[in-house]
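Throughout our pipeline, every protein is held as a single compact record rather than as scattered files. Such a record has a labelled line for the sequence and another for the backbone structure tokens. The remainder of this section carries one protein's record, kept here as part of the documentation:
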Amino acid sequence: MARSDKVQIENPDWCKKCGICVSVCPTDALKLGDKGIEIYNLDSCISCEQCSLICPDFVLKVVVNYD
């Protein structure tokens, strides 16, 4: 089994569309949509956790997935 940590939208209703998470993502895995944050390219996520650490509303979380 391979392990891959990827970003997940944990609390989508809490997103106030500030865009801070998008600005710190080094791989452009996230984008800001009409309803809030969206995962644009999950495969490009490198699990750096910058988005989840900087989000003031705890919308994002990096989780461990076992494939």
About this structure: The chain has a mean pLDDT of 90.
